[in-house]
Design a protein that fits this description.
Blueprint (H helix, E strand, L loop, with lengths): L6 H32 L3 E7 L15 H14 L10 E4 L3 H14 L3 E3 L5 H11 L4 E6 L4 H7 L16 E7 L6 E6 L9
Parallel strand pairs: 1-4, 2-3, 2-4
Antiparallel strand pairs: 1-5, 5-6
Length: 195
């Protein structure tokens, strides 16, 4: 014959069930938070290098105007995300791109990661995979920035960047679900088309 259950035994069982339910709900909440964090929007900020010096050779650094523009870029982007800031900085191995990226990288204590100007589709795919849900600055060239934006699926009709056009900031937002969007902003000295 079975013994009747005491009040103490019933309370223990109820407490055990509550603990089990709390553990299950906590595990579900942690799992959902992890899932949505992995699926967060990735933002890539693309800029052309700042004005280069009028020096003979294949790899000029920045002019004084370019140094001012690079400092302005750092001022604009240092607090781009009020929570975490920019997570990574990429530039090609040319002096002008590295010198454009250096002020923001220094301000945020980040290394400048180098990428090859050729093969921008693979470069962008790698950056998006490695930095999912983060904010990344990519410094490129007048002939690579529009191609990189197109490779990200943001827009197939990105206008060409003029020879003396250095003031564009392109913000490419890649959500985990939905359409990739591009916003173009301007910074520093305004662009004046050649006559």
């Amino acid at each position: 014959m079975r013994k009747p259950e005491s009040d103490i035994d019933r309370r223990r069982r109820r407490r055990l069930r509550r603990i089990q339910v709390a553990i299950i709900y906590t595990a579900i909440a942690v799992g959902l938070a992890w899932f949505f964090e992995l699926q967060a929007t990735t933002t890539i900020i693309l800029v052309r290098h700042a004005e280069k010096a009028a020096v003979e050779g294949d790899d000029p650094g920045l002019s004084e105007a370019g140094q001012r523009r690079a400092a302005e870029l750092a001022r604009q982007l240092a607090d781009a995300d009020v929570v975490a800031g920019i997570d990574a900085v990429y530039a090609t191995s040319y002096r002008r791109t590295e010198e454009t990226a250096q002020p923001i990288a220094s301000a945020l204590d980040l290394p400048i990661m180098s990428y090859e100007a050729a093969g921008t589709e693979d470069v962008m795919d790698g950056i998006v995979k490695e930095h999912k849900g983060e904010i990344i600055l990519v410094v490129g060239h007048s002939n690579t920035v529009p191609v990189m934006i197109a490779n990200l699926g943001a827009s197939k009709n990105v206008p060409d960047i003029g020879e003396n056009e250095y003031d564009n900031i392109y913000l490419v937002s890649i959500p985990w679900f939905g359409k990739t969007k591009t916003i173009r902003l301007r910074y520093g000295e305004p662009y004046v088309p050649l006559q």
